[in-house]
Design goal:
This protein has a seven-stranded antiparallel β-sheet with strand order 2-6-7-1-5-4-3. A three-stranded antiparallel β-sheet has the order 8-9-10, with no helix packed on it. It is built from five helices and ten strands; from the N terminus they run βαααβββαββββββα. A hairpin with a 4-residue loop joins strand 3 (about 125-130) and strand 4. It is of the alpha+beta class and about 250 residues long. It has two domains: about 1-190, no CATH class; about 200-250. It holds the Pfam family OrfB_IS605. InterPro entries: Transposase. This is Transposase.
Length: about 250
């Protein structure tokens, strides 16, 4: 058996959520506002010269923006990189013939900004593994009359005794009405010695469960049956929800 280092993302509960919820909300709203400012800027450049600015250009344009300094600089950079990736994905759909694909839009729901995911890179957080705490940095604008950081006490969601070390990145994610931490870290695992000398690349997906490439050959494992099953059970669930709703109305 050989030691191998892999990168994994551990989900974690925030134990002191009541104390840090307002600060996390502010960061999440700020990320949405920055996305919208960047999307508006990209649209203006697009209309003016027919080209969409990349992440590097957007960082240069918006570095002095009020919305940019709501977040730590690395967190703001990640928001702009996400927008660039969204445009790249849209280009890919169009190049593949999907003329119905839409460019990335604004982050708003009925004129309200949603809580966007906020990413903290190496300089944007400090990890106290001994006490199960992670300190998340704020931008200059959100430090006024408040603390300079958000101190989150966390508990890893997983088997008892699961710990996180060698943390590379932290994401504050608003999921199902609650803030969670997604902690990206390097983990050493025991890897079996391979019997052969060949290497295969495996790409997991949805339409195809897996695409395996080895040398000049490749194999596709279609996921059509799984998608059909998913569609079938979604319809069944919708009917159950509808019948429950009608029962309540009648009752």
């Amino acid at each position: 058996m050989a030691k191998k280092v892999v990168t994994r993302t551990q989900r974690a509960r925030i134990c002191n959520l009541s104390q840090v919820r307002d600060d996390l909300d502010s960061l999440g709203f700020a990320a949405s506002k920055l996305w919208n400012v960047a999307r508006w800027t990209a649209g203006r450049v697009w209309d003016a010269c027919g080209q969409i600015p990349g992440a590097g250009d957007l960082k240069s344009y918006l570095k002095g923006s009020e919305r940019y300094v709501d977040l730590h600089s690395q967190s703001s950079q990640r928001v702009l990189e996400e927008l660039d990736e969204a445009f790249t994905g849209w280009f890919g759909h169009r190049d593949n013939g999907n003329q119905k694909a839409n460019p990335p839009g604004y982050r708003k729901h009925n004129e309200q900004h949603p809580r966007s995911t906020v990413t903290f890179k190496q300089k944007g957080f400090k990890h106290d593994a001994d006490n199960g705490r992670i300190r998340l940095s704020k931008g200059r604008n959100l430090k006024e009359s408040r603390s300079d950081f958000v101190l989150c006490e966390y508990d890893v969601i997983g088997p008892r005794g699961t710990t996180v070390e060698n943390v590379k990145q932290v994401r504050a994610v608003y999921e199902h009405g609650v803030w969670r931490l997604h902690i990206v870290c390097d983990v050493a695992i025991e890897a079996s010695d391979t019997p052969g000398n060949g290497v295969a690349g495996v790409d997991l997906g949805i339409c195809n469960v897996a695409a395996v490439s080895f040398g000049d050959e490749s194999l596709l494992y279609p996921g059509g049956a799984f998608k059909e099953d998913e569609y079938y059970f979604l319809k069944k669930r919708a009917r159950c929800d509808e019948s429950q709703y009608l029962t309540k109305l009648v009752g």
